Amino acid sequence: MSSPPPSQAAARQSAADDASTRALARSPRAAFRHGVVQSLPFMVVIVPFALLFGVVATEAGLDIAQVMGFSVLVLAGASQFTAVQLLSDNAPVIIVILSALAVNLRMAMYSASLLPWLRHATPGQKAWVAYALVDQSYALSIQHYERHPKLSVTQRLAYFAGAAAVVCVPWMISTWAGATVGQAIPDDIALDFAMPITFLAMIAPMLRTPAHLVACFVAIVAALLLARLPSGLGLLIAAPLGMGAGALVEVRAEQRAS
Amino acid sequence: MQISDATIWVIILVLGAGTYLIRWSFLGALGDRQMPGWFMRMLRYTPVAVLPALVAPLVVWPAATGGAPDPARMAAAAVTVAMGVLTRNVTLAILAGGVTLAGLLYML
């Protein structure tokens, strides 16, 4: 691609400056609203996903309080589905917990990457950010912070709160709606494959790089080979093998590039 | 499911606390502490390794057929992955897979 003519580049630069000026001028309330607006498109994914969790978890035998316990206290879609799937397989409690926690380990990475931007927030504010730190609120906020590095900590927190509210609150409400609907669904309608389909749909968009593909492939092969082990145990061996393979490919790719 | 209500609540509470600690880790207690590079690198691949390992046996040996491989469920799985890779849209992929499964189960 050829570089744009100087006038165009200058226009783009000034548009970026305008956006930055607007971002810096926002009151906390306006920054909150900005986060809300930018997060709204995620509702298209969040609402059906949470409805499905409510239905599937209810069908698996959980009562409404337990279903809501998952969505309010754990607040992490993939790991909630993982736990319910393993529970319906009658996997041992320790394996349910370890597997569902493993799915959430990526959030430690989010936590580390937000720290430089929120270092001067109070411990209480950081505690709230941690509660609402999900894929969507993280992705939006880190983009926003890096684009407008001069935002105040208050503006950053307000934007995060807006983005997180639009993801977390509909997640809880739609879970409740799904659980209510789930109780009305007769038991003879086969929902056995709703969960595998949901997992596959979540995985597919993650396969961005060769390293992600290798991690996925190694995990699948290992899981199939170890499928005869007691329920869930194969997963605890296959997953780290996949993670290690992905990390190894990443290291190799970096060595080639340098 | 052969598990008591109390056990399910223990799972919910431990999972809630554990997930919270993971999220709070660097913002809170760990702060600027440097973790080994290989550790941070593995974190990137947790979802893409855990979820496929969980789902692969369910696709190949579905519980609903008593573990017998099932063409309808295999096809639904393939359509879901293809749709997810092509559109990057989770909801569309779920819908495509669900419609494929319902259609094939009806026809077969």
UniProtKB/TrEMBL annotation, chain A:
Signal peptide: none annotated. It comes from the Bacteria. The chain crosses the membrane at residues 36-55, 67-87, 93-118, 157-177, 189-207, 212-229. InterPro entries: Brnchd-chn_aa_trnsp_permease (IPR011606). It is a multi-pass membrane protein. Keywords: Cell membrane, Membrane, Transmembrane, Transmembrane helix, Transport. Pfam families: AzlC (PF03591). It is found in: Cell membrane. PANTHER family: INNER MEMBRANE PROTEIN YGAZ (PTHR34979:SF1). Belongs to the AzlC family. This is AzlC family ABC transporter permease. It comes from Paracoccus rhizosphaerae.
From TrEMBL, chain B:
The chain crosses the membrane at residues 6-30, 42-64, 76-106. Keywords: Membrane, Transmembrane, Transmembrane helix. InterPro entries: Brnchd-chn_aa_trnsp_AzlD. It comes from the Bacteria. This is AzlD domain-containing protein.
